[in-house]
Amino acid sequence: MNKITAAITAVGSYVPDFVLSNQVLETLVDTNDEWITTRTGIKERRLLKEEGKGTSFMAIKAAQNLLEKANLDPKDIDLVIMATATPDMPVASTGVYVATQIGATNAFAFDLQAACSSFLYGMSAASAYIASGKYKKVLLIGSDKMSSIIDYTDRATCIIFGDGAGAVLFEPNTEGLGLQDEILKSDGIGREFLKIEAGGSILPASEETVKNKQHFVFQDGKTVFKYAVSGMADVSEKIMQRNNLSHDDINWLVAHQANRRIIDATANRMGLDEAKVLINIQKYGNTTSATLPLLLSDFENQLKKGDNIIFAAFGGGFTWGAIYLKWAYTK
Ligand code: UT7
Questions:
Q1: Which atom of ligand 1 is found nearest the CA of 286?
Q2: Ligand 1 center from residue 260 Cα (angstroms)
Q3: How do residues 273-284 score in pLDDT, each as one tens digit?
Q4: Whose CA is nearest to atom 8 of ligand 1?
Q5: Mutation choice for ligand 1 from 192, 222, 262, 288, CB with most ligand atoms inside 8 A
Q6: What is the mean pLDDT of residues 286-301?
């Protein structure tokens, strides 16, 4: 019998309608379009503005988009993995709610949190469940409402992040397509440089923590940038070498959209042509767990069966890694 690999067989996405442009940010904080564009590549981002709607709202929309496109009965899904850094609430699990809402009543579900690497780690988890032979349909959703944890008076963070969601379906493949190899890394040295200090078990919410703005994302951008550039480029280069892939063998780089300069540095190290580097950061900013599936969704029509794709991400923790996957279908 051929070895079972885990292939992506369907993609869906959702972004909110509300657009926050660089021009509007200029009116909120001391910044300008030119600085944001040259330092990050971002022009605008989407925000989920409706009161009472959270990460699950976008996750459900993205999953429903996938179900419709793939003509899939949600009852056939075995497992829903919800990659997110902004769950609806600390307890209960957002993924469980999402699974029930989309009608995946035969699935079990859980949340996976690895900051901006949540979706990449989720690809590894989903693929392992499939490769085990125990599960046939694993829905991996990446959704984040970053606007719920961003201080819109802090120019170091509010220019970067946006809201959005994407979903992919993993299924078994016996043609050798799907996930081929992965390098996943983490290092707790990163905790100081990118975090939300309060609201967890060390520093529970109090009047004081709210007053001190400790429920918002804090980022030492310069330090994170340094680690991100070397971390993402290192694992991407290593996974190429380990699989005897030259730059000619690679069709696409699907990299976490945190900063255009980090993506370019990774692509350069891999020796890739610009045309092979998928980019949509200008439209959405950094949507954390949603960047990778939003790229797949936006560029799905260009991907061909058998294409060699390198996925790469870097995030808080620190967490980072690269995945080598062979695309399984042509639209
Ligand atoms: O996805 C999770 C992982 N996160 C990342 O990968 C993000 C990594 N970091 C970054 O993308 C970048 O560090 C930022 C985009 C956050 C910042 O870019 P930078 O090139 O590292 O800028 P900087 O922090 O070194 O600041 C350069 C200058 C400073 O002024 P001086 O000291 O040179 O006078 C800042 O005060 O730019 C100033 N500055 C700004 N100016 C206009 C900082 N933020 C802004 C701003 N608008 N929004």
A1: 1
A2: 13
A3: 999 999 999 999
A4: 225
A5: 222
A6: 98
